[in-house]
Amino acid sequence: MHHIYFIKEVIDILNAIHAGETKWEGFKWNCESFWCVEKFLETADQPYIDNFIKYVKSGEIGVSGNYLNMTELIDYTVLNNTIASSVQYMEPYAIQLTTAMTADINGYSWGYADALYENGIKNLMSCIHTHHGYHPLFKKQTPFYWQSPKGNKLLIWNGEHFLIGNELFIADDDVYEWVMDNFWETNFKVDLGGFHQYRYSLLLNNSFNVSEAFQSAKAASCPVLCYYSYV
């Protein structure tokens, strides 16, 4: 499964950094859901597991308390059980989950806030699917508090999806987003005829100013989804 190999590759990168490699210095990774972590811990060999736990404790790998990215139709009981199982899974490793992340989710049931809070998770990063809806409060890259009917309060980061590297100008060169396999037809039709060849690269740039990049991203209320150049 792809996510298991993603985590293994992340561990290989972190091992290289700690062995003296400098080109990835400062690299961190956040696992998209706890399901990925569960499957990794079930199948990986012990050295990978040991390194994974080490890097989670050092803050170089993040673990989400959200088990899967599910529909808003799921009720409190199911959400509470899945989140509780995620939290309990990490207890033997002396790791406490306090933050969750969702991706491609445009809504939650009211029970989700209470299920997170009651299992010790007080922070949530939300990454919506902009083809299906738009950002709450008509803003993105902004925090707010979500108070549940029970009075529990979560700190939410109303974030990005897919294009965060472009928004913060981390990605250099030409970047193609949803170029192929695009059933939404936002850039190129999936059935576009003829031969098409695309080249792209994603490069980490340590020279940019974080504050200036954030202000530029904030000002771009309608960012470009795709840009291209002819060579």
Structure description:
The protein folds into 2 domains: 2-158, 7-stranded beta/alpha barrel; 163-231, no CATH class. The chain has a 4-stranded mixed beta sheet. The chain is an alpha/beta fold and 231 residues long. The chain starts with a helix and ends in a 12-residue tail after the last helix. The protein contains 7 helices and 6 strands, in the order H-E-H-H-E-H-E-H-E-E-E-H-H. The longest helix is centred in the first third of the chain and has 17 residues, at 2-18. Mean pLDDT is 79; it is low at 172-190 and 221-231. It is globular, with a radius of gyration of 19 Å.
The counted number of beta strands is 6
CATH homologous superfamily grouping of the largest domain:
Glycoside hydrolase 38, N terminal domain
H/E series, N to C?
A: HEHHEHEHEEEHH
Give the end-to-end Cα distance, rounded to a whole number of Å: 36 Å
Q: Structural class, from helix and strand content?
A: alpha/beta
**What sort of overall outline do the alpha carbons produce when their principal axes are compared?**
globular
Number of separate domains = 2
Give me the side-by-side strand order of the main sheet. 3-4-6-5
Q: Output the number of helix runs.
A: 7
- What is the averaged pLDDT score? 79
